[in-house]
Design brief:
alpha+beta; globular
């Protein structure tokens, strides 16, 4: 059984998250709906406007989160309805982060697709 996909969001890895958030909020009216601190600054932020969602993560935060994984400057992040079926569908694909629970209510699994880009899959906890 293959999982159903809910959406795909680009995760952009940047030097500083704050200026990127300010750009989208002040110029286009995006709303910051999630923020995760890293050390003394913002490590991650999620922005939304209508059907558009953007995620930014600082390079330092991504390196701390993904430890020994060779990072790319962008990644894809998919919401799925069944993380276990997703993992089953990914047999033989390079796993970079095994199944894990996050502080923001997702069960995640990260792989590297054939071109070397990081791809994360997440099943959100039901409220």
């Amino acid at each position: 059984m293959q999982p159903n996909f809910g959406k795909c969001t680009s995760v952009l890895v940047v030097n500083k998250v704050g200026p990127c958030v300010e750009f989208w909020v002040s110029r286009f009216g995006f709303e910051k709906v999630a923020e995760v601190p890293h050390e003394s600054s913002t490590g991650f932020a999620m922005l939304v406007k209508g059907p558009v969602e953007l995620m930014y993560q600082s390079l330092e935060s991504a390196q701390a989160d993904l430890k020994s994984v060779e990072l790319s400057r962008s990644a894809l992040y998919f919401d799925v309805d069944d993380i276990d079926a997703t993992i089953e569908s990914l047999k033989g694909v390079e796993t970079v982060v095994s199944k894990r629970e996050t502080s923001y209510g997702a069960t995640e699994y990260w792989v590297r697709e054939p071109a070397g880009n990081l791809v994360g899959f997440a099943q959100m906890k039901k409220s």
